[in-house]
Specification:
Blueprint: E1 13-14, E2 17-18, H1 20-30, H2 42-59, H3 70-86, H4 99-120, H5 122-127, H6 139-182, H7 187-226
Antiparallel strand pairs: 1-2
Helix pairs in contact: 1-3, 3-7, 4-6, 4-7, 6-7
GO cellular component, one term: mitochondrial inner membrane
Catalytic activity: H(+)(in) = H(+)(out)
Subcellular location: Mitochondrion inner membrane
């Protein structure tokens, strides 16, 4: 059976059961649980150091009221990093290449930040829709533009994450196909292409980490604007 180029992004099904649920559950099993010992092992110490540095960098410019979101954003960051990096392994599925899943993450969190802004600072939240000093004839047009840009934010979050991961996976697949094709025809060119494939894989690992960080960073900026 010949597989298409985009078949790697389809959700796998086993006995009629979608395995995306298993893929979403797996990351939480991989991380070690804290212990009651006075001294943790190196893996737990590294995990704690990463979490503390991440929360300090993300929530330092945010109002103290927004620090309640630290646990949620940190868990989302670890979750996205794990899904993105595990999807680079052979014969695996990357759930974050599905736009529906990314929108399920982006839309509720964005809506929560907007509702918080309208609840605690309604005047400030509505003031974003009309910049100060706008000429009277442009007021209706600017309100429409700012409202559209506000509602585009969750779509931009989901599409940005999906597009970057999908493009990287496709590029790796095309390059690996070229390596297998040239292996017996032009071994020297195949070797050079395999080096390019290794560099693309390292680049994709970096993209997987950066995209997860940017996703959470933009959500924190939306929270900061509404607080």
């Amino acid at each position: 059976m010949t597989l298409g180029l985009f078949d790697q992004f389809s959700s796998p099904v086993f006995l009629g059961i979608p395995l995306i649920v298993l893929a979403l559950t797996l990351p939480w099993i991989l991380y070690p649980q804290p212990t009651s010992r006075w001294l943790n092992n190196r893996l737990l110490a590294l995990q704690g150091c990463f979490i503390s540095r991440f929360t300090q960098q993300i929530f330092q410019p945010i109002n103290p009221k927004g620090h309640k979101w630290a646990a949620l954003f940190t868990a989302l960051m670890l979750f996205l990093v794990t899904l993105n990096t595990l999807g680079l392994l052979p014969y695996t599925f990357t759930p974050t290449t599905q736009l529906s899943l990314n929108m399920a993450f982006a839309a509720p969190l964005w809506l929560a930040t907007v509702l918080i802004g309208t609840r605690y600072q309604p005047t400030h939240a509505l003031g974003h829709l009309l910049p100060e000093g706008t000429p009277a004839p442009l007021i209706p047009l600017l309100i429409i533009i700012e409202t559209a840009s506000l509602f585009i934010r969750p779509l931009a979050l989901g599409v940005r994450l999906t597009a970057n991961l999908t493009a990287g996976h496709l590029l790796i697949q095309l390059t690996s196909t070229a390596v297998f094709t040239l292996m017996f025809l032009m071994p020297t060119l195949a070797f050079l292409t395999s080096i390019l494939l290794l560099l693309l894989t390292l680049l994709e690992v970096a993209v997987a980490l950066i995209r997860a960080y940017v996703f959470v960073l933009l959500l924190s900026l939306y929270l900061q604007d509404n607080l």
